[in-house]
Structure formats: structure tokens, C-alpha cells
Amino acid sequence: MDTKGKRRNSEGLSVILNHASLVSAQGSTQKTILNDISLTIEPGEFICILGTSGSGKTSLIKTLLGQATLTSGTASVGGIDLPSNTQALRGQIGYVQQQDVNPPALPAGRAFDYAASLRLPAKTSEIDRQSIVASVLKDLRIEHLRQTPIHVLSGGEAKRGSLAVEMLSKPGLFILDEATSSLDAANEARIMRSLAEQAEAGMTVICITHHLDNVDLSDRIVILDRGSLVWDGHVNDALKHFEVNRLPDIYIKLEDDHSGFWKQRWKEVEHQQGSSLNGKVVPNEEKRKTQPAVPWSHAFRILLSRNLEIVIRDRSSILTLFLLPLIIAMMILVAFNNTNFQDKFLLTRYLDVDEKAVLADIWGDVRSAVAADDAKKLPPDVKAQIRVALDGYPKILAHLKSDSADRIVSDALSDRIKAAPEREIIDPAGTFKFLFNTNVTVALIGFVFGIKEHVREKHIYARERMHGVPISSYVMSKAALIAIVMLVQVGLLMSVLNLCFDVIQSHGGSAPEMLYRRSGGTEFFLTGYLDAPQHLLGWWSLLS
Question: What percent of the chain has pLDDT over 90?
């Protein structure tokens, strides 16, 4: 596969690591993740990175994505230093990991259309966008899957769908981090051939893989061991270097090497080569134009449309949307089955001047009457008559003898408590308990739904954010979706409850008093207010 002459003038991006080292602090100790790696990948090359688990492959990729900062040395992509200028590479790096980035509920065609709307410039016309999508799907041979829901695609088809999404913006550098690890041999081979074709067309491709059958399709392989570079060259030369007949045997050699023999041997090979590409700066590379950030309103509109379509197409979401309010309504009705919402409650007021005078006069006689040991010891007057009457009610007599009785009368006379009856009203306690339980229950539904919405698409947004989608538009689109869902659920819940209570009242039962109930709009915004913490958690989950 000798096409490097053509590729040097391609639109691919170079990758240059110069003495790159990355050290991670783990408590009081430090662990070397990348150890003095120098590596140059020319525009349009197809490179496979191999190595055992923990060899530093993923950390190397994070460095190229600007997600990790080197402890020493430098890294650049397309002549742009990392990670300080990561934004300059917006839309120019395609990245596919093990998790697929297409919403499972959507048909493949709709998922690709939404991805294209977010990843292509906002001014791209509908015709141009559809043309680009069609071209990418044709290149990956999945144009026949447009009407197929993502969740029913095979593993290989779903992975090619993730490749398609990343290729929409025609990146100059395409990175796969063990994206084919879960695929069978046939699908892995198809993916690798597609990558080779993209490299032939001029795209720089870096693939981390544990499948070794098709790495010979790449221009060269890079092998890492314990954070160090131990090979960079053609597959056949690697077999000779490690003195093995099969690539898997290289892993065994590396695992058995505790002295650093292969690391030292590679340094000797580098020294002997002299003219190696390692550390060489690719000259006169033309920098690609940075993709502009996605406008806030454009991103919000696309994300909200996608969110709504996902909910509508997801049968389990629709079932939950309508069934859950009915179940909750039944539970609330059972919980308040024995509550009499029409119980009476006495309102009181302060005593007026005349009432205070009468109370003060009467209380003096009452206090003297209850203080006597025996009514017979009292002179035959009003006090004795009061005592005789109270002796027939021992509980009242006991209350009047307590210190609290004197304190209550004193407070009533000094306007510290309202002691005079004014009028009877319907007791609001039952209605308020009903409203409280209803609001808290609905708020919990919204809270759980909102957290699920934010968290389940975190890996999808992580990629879209690298293409310039504002985090605020993402969170606000989720907030708008939750508001719409809550509007439907709250409306359905309250409609069912009102209907059931109307039936109960028609059969002589009681219902929450309308006097104490808020309007439907107030109920809706109250539950939205109670759901606010989940939006904050959504922001945190996306930023972390």
C-alpha cells in the first residue's frame, strides 16, 4: 500500500509527539503513563496502535484529543499545539470509542440527519446536507439502513453508523479507540477495510485495536508497552524484530519482559535508523479552517427536536408517559380514601374590650372556685355554684387548676392569642396534605426522568461538544423536553384525579376543597421549580 506520495498533499492532519511524557499522581506515589514517546504520523497514513492493557494507548489518544496535558514534551495535530489550542481543531478530529453515539430509538437515517445538522456548518442547505449524508453512507455501505432503528442494528452495522456520524464533517484525523473490540471477525474486517479506504482517500487514521488479523491493512503498526514505545514500523518487520511468527506472540514477549529489554532494543533500532520519522516535523502543512461553534439557537432547536422524536419513537417512554400518571392517581386516591376533606375548623379572633372585662371578672370567681379544696368550704355565693358545677366535670376542673389555664386567660386578655370564636370554615389540612403529596410525587417523577435524560446521553454529548455544541443549549433543550413531558403528565394526573373526585362527590363522598387549590398553571410551575436541582445535576454530570 504505497500511496504516500499522493497522501502528502491530502487533507489529512499530521500527528507529532516529541518526547511526550505523562505522569499521574496516585496518592503519595506517581505512575508513569507515557514515557518519552516520539512519534510522527504523516497526513493520510493509517496507523494501528497495539499493546497490552495498561500500556498507555488510551492515554495517548486522550492527549491527541486535548483531554490530557503532558507532563513534559509536546504534542501537535495538524501543526496545532495541544492541549492549549484544542478549539482550533473543532470538527477536524473524528473519534469513535466503544460506546455508540447514535440514539437507539431513532431510525438510522434520522440519527444521521440530526448529527449532520449539528456537525456541519449551520448555513449548510438541506440539499447539501442530505448529499453529504448520502455520500458517507454510501462509502460505508449502509445506505440501505436508513429506515432501520438503531437499536435493531447488528453490532457491525451500529459501529459503521458511529463511523458515519464522525465522518460527516470530513475530519482530517480519524481516531478509533478499541471501537471494534466487541465485533466478530467479519465485521471487524469490514471496518478495517473501510478505514484503509478512508486513508487511501487522504484521511489520517489511528486505530487502537486488539484484533490483529487485519492490522496488515495499515501502513504501519505502533506498539506500546508500559507507557513506552517499543516498535514503530511495518507488521512483517515487527515479527522479525520480536523474533516471533505471529503478532499475538509479541504480547507474550512483552508480558514476560520485566527488565525493559524490548524498550532498550527499540532505542537501539531508532539510533541505528537515524533517518527515522520519529520526532521529525512535517514541513509546510496547510492548516485547515477551524469549524465555527454551533449557534445557540440552532443547537437548541435541533436538540429539542431530536429529544422529542426520541421520546415519541420510544414505546417504553410513551407507555411510561401515560401509564405512570394513572398509577400515581390510583395510589393517591387509595391513600386519601378515608380523608374527610369537609371537616369543619373554628376560626378565632382577639377579644374585644367588653369581652375582656367579662372574662377578667368571671375568671377571678372561677380561679377562687377551683382553688378551694371542697365546695362546702366556700361561702354560698357564685363561687360555690361554679365549684359545684365543675365537680361534675373532673377533667375540666383538672384543666382549670393547671398553670396553663391562668396563662391562657392572661394571653387572651393581653391580645397574645385569639380566644373568641368567629366562624366555622372547612378544615384545609386534608386538602393541603393532598396537594403536598401530589406535588412531591410529580416532582420526583420529573427529577428521575430529568436525571435519566441527562446521564444516558452523556457520551453522545461529549462528542457533540467537541464539535462546538454549547453545553447551555444542550441543558436547556433537556429542560424544555422535561417541561413538555411534565405538562402532559401533570395534566393527565390532575384530570384523572378531578374526574375521580367528581364521581366520589356524586356518591356522597368528599373531595379536596377547591377554595384551597391552586390553578393548573401554578401547579405545573411549582413542580418545575421542585425539579430545578436535577438540571443542576445535569450540568454537573456533563462537565465532570
Answer: 32
Give the predicted TM-score (pTM) of the model: 0.75
CB atoms under 10 Å from CB of 71, counted, come to: 14
- DSSP letters, 186-210, are HHHHHHHHHHHHHHHTT-EEEEE-S
Nearest-Å Rg of the Cα atoms of the chain is 38
* C-alpha torsion sign, points 338, 340, 341, 345: negative
- How far the first Cα of the chain sits from its last, in Å, is 42
Burial class (CB in 10 A: 0-12, 13-18, 19+), 432: middle
Q: How many CA atoms lie within 13 A of 76 on its CB side?
A: 17
pLDDT digits (tens, 9 = 90+) for 448-457: 777 777 667 7
- Specify the pLDDT at position 155: 85
**215/207 Cα distance (integer angstroms):** 9
Q: What are phi and psi of 416, to 5 degrees?
A: -95, -20
Dihedral angle sign, alpha carbons of residues 103, 106, 108, 110: negative
- Per-residue pLDDT, averaged over 109-120, amounts to 92
CA dihedral sign, ordered 120, 125, 128, 134: positive
Amino acid letter, residue 349:
R
d(C-alpha 382, C-alpha 364), whole Å = 11
- 352 Cα distance to chain centroid: 62
DSSP state of 107: B
Residue identified by cell 453490532 is 155
Write out the DSSP string of 496-544: HHHHHHHHHHHTT-----GGGPPPHHHHHHHHHHHTHHHHHHHHHHHH-
pLDDT, tens digit, 9 for 90 and up, residues 304-321: 999 999 989 988 888 888
Tell me the domains of the chain and their CATH numbers: 4-92+171-273 (3.40.50.300), 102-169 (no CATH), 296-342+428-543 (no CATH), 344-426 (no CATH)
At residue 64, does pLDDT exceed 80? yes
State how far the alpha carbon of 412 is from the alpha carbons of 314, 357, 386, 409, in Å: 64, 11, 21, 5
Residue in 424, 128, 449 with CA at minimum distance from that of residue 314: 449
The sign one gets for the Cα dihedral 83, 88, 94, 97 is: positive
DSSP state of 290: P
Nearest Cα neighbor of 543 from 449, 452, 446, 455 is 455
The DSSP annotation for 415-440 comes to TSS--EEEEEEE-SHHHHHHHHHHHH
Per-residue pLDDT at 393: 87
